[in-house]
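Researcher: I'd like a candidate sequence for this fold, 399 residues long. If you have to choose between options at a position, lean toward the conservative one.
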């Protein structure tokens, strides 16, 4: 009741009101009920007023060593909040050392919260406050099997920042982490994938690398059966993965083919991944898909699909002629935005393969009237200027 009266006094400034209220929270931090103690420390940590940090430090230090694990895990997160307000108090009062001690706590939830707090402070300060060692590593791996799913994410993120001393140590960590690839929570799966990919560079045994690569494909494919929002996040991560290790998903290109009811942002990401995975073995399937996409109703997606055909031609020299043939088929549809995009990608193909595929120049010139966008006009002017001797009335065509 006293707290409510303090907060209702309109004549008091916010800082003074906070100072009056904090006495109640300090008293509650010694309450026999652990839930009250935890809530008191949590509330004090949420009052971002620098003047009350002195009052917070003593009850926070007690709660970090509290006998109840719920109080300890709440206090661990409070240290990260205190660091945002007053980093000096956290460093001078030894709260960082207390957090490191909590990493060895018997309760896995307390361990996860301590790791989360240390990660947050490390990101904010740019310093290595985690001080990961072999003993800390073993404690994290032990807690990984027992804590909640979000606690697992915090621990896996901490493991991702650790650099193993040898390839053998990296293999041992990966062996403990790979069961998380089958987890129902997509965040846990992606964090586990990040750790495995990070350590693959350190594994010296090629057979182990191939075996781990095979294990990564199924969980990544499974993520594509989730909600569109999760699909999008997964696709963004997969895009980065295939840039570094395309072999992981080289046989799974079909799962990235767009569905009619996919949101446009999902379709765009799938296109990028298809282009990265395309090869001479699957180019025929991919071209059939891209040709189908070019007849969709969404103009931006159609443009992206046409441009993707040109990128395939540039990437695969032996398949360039097949890509050009598909572009010619699309140009004959006489759809303005398709023709303009085809002209743009054809210019890129000519630059990649000079002296080849000039037979399509005539078809391009027949569609000059449809060019009304600056980029398409610029591409056509370049083509005409580069191959003027093969084009009748080249000056008139560009005027």
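Model: Candidate sequence:
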């Amino acid at each position: 009741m006293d707290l409510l009266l303090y907060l209702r006094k309109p004549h008091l400034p916010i800082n003074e009101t906070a100072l009056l209220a904090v006495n109640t929270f300090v008293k509650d931090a010694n309450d026999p009920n652990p839930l009250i103690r935890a809530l008191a420390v949590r509330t004090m940590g949420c009052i971002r007023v620098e003047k009350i940090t002195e009052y917070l430090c003593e009850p926070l230090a007690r709660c970090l060593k509290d006998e109840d694990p719920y109080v300890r895990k709440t206090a661990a997160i409070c240290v990260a909040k205190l660091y945002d307000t007053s980093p000096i108090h956290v460093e001078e009062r030894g709260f960082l050392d207390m957090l490191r001690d909590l990493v060895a706590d018997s309760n896995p939830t307390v361990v996860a919260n301590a790791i989360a707090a240390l990660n947050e402070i490390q990101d904010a300060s740019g310093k290595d406050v985690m001080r990961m060692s072999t003993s800390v590593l073993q404690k994290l791996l032990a807690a990984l099997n027992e804590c909640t799913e979000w606690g697992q994410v915090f621990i896996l993120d901490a493991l991702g920042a650790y650099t193993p001393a040898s390839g053998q140590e990296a293999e041992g960590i990966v062996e403990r982490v790979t069961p998380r690839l089958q987890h129902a929570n997509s965040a846990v799966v992606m964090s586990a994938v990040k750790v495995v990919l990070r350590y693959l560079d350190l594994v010296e045994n090629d057979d182990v690398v191939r075996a781990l690569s095979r294990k990564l494909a199924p969980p990544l494919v499974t993520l594509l059966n989730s909600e569109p929002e999760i699909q999008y996040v997964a696709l963004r991560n997969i895009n980065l993965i295939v840039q570094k290790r395309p072999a992981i998903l080289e046989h799974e290109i079909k799962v990235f083919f767009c569905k009619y009811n996919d949101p446009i942002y999902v379709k765009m990401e799938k296109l990028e991944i298809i282009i990265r995975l395309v090869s001479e073995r699957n180019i025929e399937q991919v071209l059939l898909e891209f040709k189908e996409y070019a007849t969709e109703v969404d103009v931006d997606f159609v443009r992206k699909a046409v441009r993707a055909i040109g990128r395939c031609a540039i990437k695969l020299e032996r398949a360039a002629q097949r890509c050009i043939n598909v572009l010619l088929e699309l140009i004959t549809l006489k759809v303005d935005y398709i023709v303009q995009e085809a002209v743009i990608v054809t210019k890129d193909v000519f630059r990649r393969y000079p002296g080849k595929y000039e037979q399509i120049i005539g078809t391009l010139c027949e569609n000059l009237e449809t060019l009304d966008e600056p980029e398409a006009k610029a591409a056509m002017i370049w083509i005409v200027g580069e191959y003027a001797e093969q084009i009748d009335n080249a000056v008139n065509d560009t005027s």
